[in-house]
Amino acid sequence: MKSGQKNNMASVFLVLLVLLTSWSVTAEEADKLLLKSVQPVISIIIDDMGHRLQDGNRALELPGAVTYAFLPHTPHAREMAEQAYTSGKEVMLHLPMDAREGKKLGLGGLSLHMTQQQFQDALASSLASVPHVVGLNNHMGSLLTQHPGAMNWLMEDVQQRGNLFFVDSRTTSLTVAEQLAHEHQIPSAGRDIFLDNIREPEYIREQFQQLIRRAKMRGKAIGIGHPYPETIATLTEELEKLEESGVKLVFTSEIIATKRRNMPWQASLSPSPKAVKSLKPLPSSTCCDEPALQ
Asked: Which helix or strand (DSSP H or E) is residue 248 part of?
């Protein structure tokens, strides 16, 4: 066994020993101890895949465990999703949702004016248009994700399928999407950083560094970017030297799985055990109209 592995195991053992022997340890203190013993991880989701073939193909060449979110019913979504899956990448559905500014949804989008049956039909059609989907996130959605009723319909359908996770792109600070996902026991998380609100390499590089800092502070962080040439070129450079920062790139599903595995510790050390009831194992298969919100 390598010395690094021995040291890591020793750190984890020490954390567990403290947790088991000290009844006064709070959830926050436990989190800090665990973060010191576990390598920080980031996930990168490339949204808006499926429209531009050349840009999409370049995006698929990004090194490592990158997750790609495909817009439904777009000209190249099926072809590129197959390519991503064959290359060992992770595939998500980038589901269009109503925005406050009334932007055009495109095929497969969810609207506030739909009935529940129309919601279900749109989601089924969108999922059928993109193969190998393991999760979904919202494209736009600053209007729809504010409405508990609409999000309840969506999460009921996702829950019934039983094999999908959900990422809230957080295109509005008023979103209730992740909260409703939790209430329906759907594996879920929220976006931490938008990488390319401004399509300039230096800005994208700084956002990427902010993503790393967030991961080191909290143990994990999710960044969202797009298949812009500037984004792909900058990420290619930054990912090649990521190991030097002590942070690991993982698929989005892995971050969500880690988050859910850690929840029982927090619940058991917290005054409120209510969260434990909502836990459910993650399946083994393992945007952005207001991007300024960080």
From this structure: strand 248-249
Helix axes 116-129, 148-161, angle to 10 degrees: 50
Interaxial angle between packed helices 201-218 and 229-240, expressed in degrees from 0 to 180 and rounded to the nearest 10:
50
In a domain, 117, yes or no: yes
Which residues span the domain enclosing 203? 39-278
Residue 211 domain flag: yes
Total domains present in the chain: 1
Question: CB under 8 Å to 292, separation ≥6 — which residues?
Answer: 194, 197
pTM of the complete model beyond 0.90: no
Residue 20 lies in a domain: no
Looking at the DSSP bridge assignments, the partners of residue 90 are 67
Digit-coded pLDDT (tens) for 109-164: 999 999 999 999 999 999 999 999 999 999 999 999 999 999 999 999 999 999 99
Task: Give the DSSP letter string of 174-190.
Answer: T--HHHHHHHTT--EEE
- The torsion of the CA quartet 88, 90, 93, 94, rounded to 10 degrees, works out to -110
CA angle (191 as vertex; 186, 197 as ends), nearest 5: 150
CB 196 within 8 A of CB 226: yes
For residue range 191-235, what is the model confidence (pLDDT) as tens digits?
999 999 999 999 999 999 999 999 999 999 999 999 999 999 999
Strand duo 188-190 + 193-194: pairing: unpaired
Q: Looking at per-residue confidence, does 170 or 37 come out higher?
A: 170
Report whether 125 contacts 155 (CB < 8 A). Answer: no
* H helices, E strands: number in the chain: 10, 9
Within-domain flag for 32? no
Strands 90-97 and 41-49 come out as unpaired
CATH assignment at residue 156: 3.20.20.370
Which residues sit opposite 91 in a β-bridge? 68, 133
Q: What is the largest CA-CA distance in the chain?
A: 60
Q: Rounded to whole angstroms, what are the CA distances from 253 to 129, 135, 144, 188?
A: 21, 8, 24, 9
